[in-house]
Amino acid sequence: MKVSNMNEVYINKIAKFLPNAPVNNDDMETFLGKINDKESKARRIVLRNNGIKTRYYALTEAGVPTHSNAQLTAEAVNGLFDVDFGPQDVELLSCGTSSPDFLMPSHAVMVHGELGNRNLEINSAAGNCCAGMNALKYGYMSVKSGNSKNAVCTGSERMSSWMVADHFSKEVENLRQLEEQPIIGFNKDFLRWMLSDGAGAFLLENEPKGNLSLRIDWMEGYSYAHELDVCMYAGADKTADGTLKSFSDYTSEEWLSKSIFAVKQDTKLLDKYILVKGVESMKNAMDKHGISPADIDYLLPHVSSHYFVDGLYKGFAAAGIEVAREKWFTNLRDVGNVGAGSVYLMLDELVQSGRLVKGQRIMLCVPESARFTYAYAFLTVC
């Protein structure tokens, strides 16, 4: 069977949407509220380690939502449109998030509804931080195969509304009634100080346009769920043997009394495996495509915390894939951890910085701690 030539795929436009004004560390509890009317003991420790100074919330200071996830995403997508490419030109919409507004319908359906543009193909990528990269890969494969001439791909989060204090009030009251200390576990409190809201969007096309395009040379993904336990989860709780029990197997009363829908993280598993498997998967991707550190001009690693940066650098060096620190580009300090949207926001900021020169190559590197999944993309500036 004759195999036809594949198209090249280019990121020709990038847009973002960050809701409201940036929120500094001292004002976080103003927006999210205080659990049990007490300041979090974990907050300062977590913030000191993650190095985040400001982030964005789709909330008022009273904790009232200002945007849905679908609205955040649609705002980013609208930023791609101009006189040369409008809403009616989109052939495929591929959206990734770990915080959809609903269990169903899917996130991409709701974004499409917000856009209200035309009949088109959609794809929703679920999961955690890699959801944005999985949405990108679907669009990449569609354009590359000739299924579509263009694709709009997005990564977004609206985690703030999951983290407001009111969602934990029933658990605190339940602990009081059991005469236990009314303090939310660290595995829940930890993430209240880590996560942020926002959305990014890429326009993919089968030919370069404008003054600067980014060709997607390849994308790779790796999962270690076959050997590692769940680390980050929501809508479930861990049992004594480490397995997950779904929200659907709890009573509706337990949903509130145990904060079943809260986002939780097993920090011991995170610390033990996130860097080890990140280094292993990065080396696998580089070896597969014959890439050396010298071939990378910019490394854009999605790190949830600056705590991991030195360890990741040392791990790369020990594995023989050391990428010089001056090549690393992140915006975690100012934008926060926007999960599935972070890599979109990083690449947008790098492009807007004016640093890029044709011929340079960029590595996107996204880990996901949910059950240890990793995604990579290698780009060339055209």
TrEMBL record:
Classification via InterPro entries: ACP_syn_III_C, Thiolase-like
Stored Pfam families: ACP_syn_III_C
Keyword set includes Metal-binding: no
The entry's keywords: Acyltransferase, Transferase
Domain Beta-ketoacyl-[acyl-carrier-protein] synthase III C-terminal: 286-365
Descriptive protein name: Beta-ketoacyl-ACP synthase III
